[in-house]
What does this fold into?
Amino acid sequence: MHEWALAEAVLSSATEIAEKEGLSEVTEVKITVGELQQIEVDILEFALSQLKTAKFGKTKFKIETKKAELKCRVCDHRWFFGEQKIDRETAEAIHFVPEIAYICTRCPECGSPDFEIMQGRGVWLERVKGVK
It folds into this structure.
């Protein structure tokens, strides 16, 4: 599961930020996850709790999911990815390769497969707070 690899990357990046900021302890880490990443938040939270070091002993991990908003290049219609019905196999594929959304998604207004992702991709480390 890539949630574990993601947790390792978050902790590594947060450690670098904490060191640059001179933090002896990290109290809060805010993470934003794009909906198209199909991250299982519960698994990510568990992985973070299991992998954290002493510097993160009392850290609150806040994880927010950003909805994926799409815009049709043909008719300019905007919609949210989560409004569509997707079978389990396709959802699993998108989980590992978000670009697969381009294959299984069509504009609900005009049926065009030509759209752009306005938001809802990627993972961001939004904030690292702590004590100096």
Notes: The chain has a mean pLDDT of 90. The domain at 2-131 is CATH 3.30.2320.80 (hypothetical protein PF0899 fold). The helical segments are 2-21, 41-51, 88-96, 101-104. The chain is about 35% helix and 30% strand.
